[in-house]
Specification:
Helix content is 20%, strand content 32%. It is an alpha+beta fold and 257 residues long. The longest helix is centred in the middle third of the chain and has 14 residues.
């Protein structure tokens, strides 16, 4: 049974998701459709890539990941199929796949589109047909022409200074946990005899890393390296994002003293 996953910023209010699913089911009745998420903030490839980057490796080889996040910072109208680690990614060539695969690809194909046709619903008119053909065992090379490289978006890496790491918030999860772009290896580069102080939202600080959310009493703030391996600011049984006014792109500093 072929598997196609869907990651979009369509939301669940409008007709886009059911229309997309209906098209795919009409052309591949045996398909197993999986919703990764349709709640990505509009035009936010970084948020979408975070979700898919932390989930795609758990799917079986041959899974097809259809990603519809139209970046308002890119203006080319290319759509691509990328083969990577035995899985397939179909998206606008706006850099989002580069964030998922860290710029790596085993094969990149520019999808063929109908000439002289205005594309109003690219997820359904361009990407879904390619996904369906792939699910029906069409050779990927018949879906378009090979490319040497795809458009990329620079990874959001923290700035490492002599006694400070300058990071940023890249994701807020459903619980209000605030996830930064700082991982443990960044911290391990610094003198372990110095104390690491996490600063955020003005003068709020945390000077200890925990292993689990419930290592502190309910309602207390903590910092930990979560399941993604990235530094999180959290409140046990609370919403850190709301409580501290933290959003995507908010600054997170770690000072070593």
């Amino acid at each position: 049974m072929p598997i196609i996953t869907l990651t979009t910023d369509f939301g669940n209010k409008d007709f886009f998701v059911p229309a997309l699913k209906g098209y795919i089911l009409s052309h591949v009745p045996s398909v197993h459709l999986i919703d990764i998420t349709h709640e990505v903030n509009p035009f936010n490839p970084i948020e979408a890539s975070f979700v898919l980057r932390n989930s795609y490796m758990d799917f079986p080889p041959g899974t097809i990941h259809l990603i519809s996040i139209e970046s308002n910072q890119h203006f080319n109208d290319d759509y691509i199929l990328v083969e990577f680690q035995g899985q397939y990614f179909i998206a606008h060539n706006n850099g989002i796949i580069s964030l998922i695969t860290e710029g790596k690809a085993d094969k990149i194909i520019r999808l063929t589109k109908a000439e002289n046709k205005t594309i109003l619903f690219p997820a359904k008119e361009v990407m879904a047909p390619a996904a369906c053909l792939l699910a029906n065992n069409t050779d990927p090379l018949k879906l378009g022409e090979l490319m040497e490289k795809m458009d990329t978006i620079s990874s959001l890496n923290p700035i490492l200074e002599q006694d400070m790491i300058r990071g940023t918030v890249i994701y807020i999860d459903n619980y209000g946990n605030v996830i930064s772009n700082i991982n443990r290896s960044h911290i391990d580069r610094y003198d372990k005899s110095k104390k690491a102080i996490v600063q955020f939202s003005g003068k709020l600080t945390v000077d200890k890393f925990y292993e689990y959310y419930n290592d502190v009493p309910e309602g207390e703030v903590l910092c930990l390296f979560g399941v993604t391996g990235l530094l999180e600011i959290a409140v046990n049984k609370g919403n850190a994002s709301t409580l501290f006014g933290l959003n995507v792109s908010s600054r997170v500093l770690i000072e070593f003293i």
